[in-house]
Amino acid sequence: MSSGTQLANNAWEALLSAHAVLMKQFAAEDIWQDLTMREYDVLYTLSKCPGPLRIGELTRRVLLSQPALSRMVDRLVERGFVERQAAPGDGRGVHLSLTATGLEKQRQIGRRHARSVARAVTTQVSVEELRQLEAICKKLAQQHED
Q1: Same structural domain for residues 45 and 90?
Q2: Does this model's pTM top 0.70?
Q3: Alpha carbon distances (Å) from 6 to 15, 17, 46, 85
Q4: Element (H, E) at 20
């Protein structure tokens, strides 16, 4: 294996390991109220979008299969956190967005989670390293979107 291939794979494995460790740490925290972390991820993703999303768009933004996401959305709708709206000009299309209750829930949990993330990463990583990490991750994410 070439040194470039080895380096890329080592970096990828390090990224996945860091993600796994941090996600386990975050999952163990008592901040999620009556949501799972995955449910919170859906609320967070919807909160970051400028407008309603189709289920297919939401599927591309979260780490769930479309069938699993559809079931989760059904539960979030039943609980009053997400609403479905008919897509304008498309009789079969449906848009998803947060309700006021869903947005408030996302903000309550999000404030705690943001502090937790900051604590977890700033104890190990300098400000300059955080800037580099952000730039690298944005570059990799942009590559996927292009």
Answers
A1: yes
A2: yes
A3: 14, 16, 37, 48
A4: helix 3-27
Helix H or strand E segment including 84: strand 82-86
In which element (H, E) is residue 4 found? helix 3-27
pLDDT in tens, 96-125: 999 999 999 999 999 999 999 999 999 999
Sign of CA dihedral 60, 86, 42, 139: positive
Query: Please, what is the average pLDDT of the chain?
Result: 92
Pair 51, 116 in one domain: yes
As given in the structure block, the two tokens for residue 29 are: 């925290």
Number of domains in the chain: 2
Alpha helices in 28-146 (DSSP H): 37-48, 55-61, 66-78, 100-122, 127-145
Both 42 and 20 in one domain: the answer is no
Do 21 and 36 belong together in one domain? no
Range of the domain at 57: 31-145
- Whole-number percent of the chain with pLDDT over 70: 97
